[in-house]
Amino acid sequence: MGDLYALDFDGVLCDSCGESSLSAVKAAKIRWPGLFDGVDSAMEDWIVDQMHVVRPVVETGYENVLLVRLLLEIRMPTIRKSSVGIILMQKFHFSVFSEIKGNHLLPRGGDGLTIDRILDNWSKLKPVIMEEWDENRESLIELFGKVRDEWIEKGLSSWIGANRFYPGVPDALKFASSRIYIVTTKQARFADALLRELAGVTIPSHRIYGLGTGPKVEVLKQLQSKEENKGLTLHFVEDRLATLKNVIKVPELDGWNLYLGDWGYNTQKEREEAATIPRIQLLELSDFSRKLK
């Protein structure tokens, strides 16, 4: 008998928001060069700062590239070459007015799209902008991976340095008595590189389930069905509430203990909701490290 921990990577083990935001800006400049003409370093810094705020909505890395463009269009509506604003107002009734004062409506500016509205509506916004911008998921994934590969090739140390493991996590992984699997939407080669180069941890490749290995609910099914895992107590640690809610919908996965890492990419609103769901345990970073050991 023993324990099996299936661990998300970004937001549970590693804070990669700095690296992914910088990579997304590079990818967006390649994908839409005309829109980024004249965008100075100060604007890029603002976008990277805001990417830390909207990061909780990201499920798969390529979405960072879409968010970079959306943030640019919010900040500089004059460069907008699409009818996204009109579509969003029609579909989601985003008001361009922020408040009524006397008999006058005070303008919000732009089309009423704000950071908070991205946080609240991303799952609905994403398909709208993908269609309006005529984008393809696979091509954006390929572009995002290519940008990272080139960065690593030209300067591995600077790419590594743009990431950080959460305090205590490397040692917890090194000395874990539990069986560890990585279950992530990050491309496996990047997770493996960071584990080796930054955390000093080697996890066998067959225990890293990265982008392309299927939805996380399917990966969890695979893990619990493996003969070598029979009899182990199953734990899944994730920082996205939506992912944990998807697991709860699958009766076959009722045997998993579910944890939301409160140090990861989630919002106070999501943590409060998680606290009301009996299957989900809110987990602090110090408790997580102790559990692995």
Automatic annotation (TrEMBL):
Top-level taxonomic group: Eukaryota
GO CC terms: endosome; lytic vacuole
Spans through the membrane: none
Single GO MF annotation: SNARE binding
GO biological process: SNARE complex assembly
InterPro entries on file: HAD-like_sf
PANTHER family cross-referenced by the UniProt entry: OS07G0418000 PROTEIN, UV RADIATION RESISTANCE-ASSOCIATED GENE PROTEIN
Protein name: Uncharacterized protein LOC104596025 isoform X1
Organism: Nelumbo nucifera (Sacred lotus)
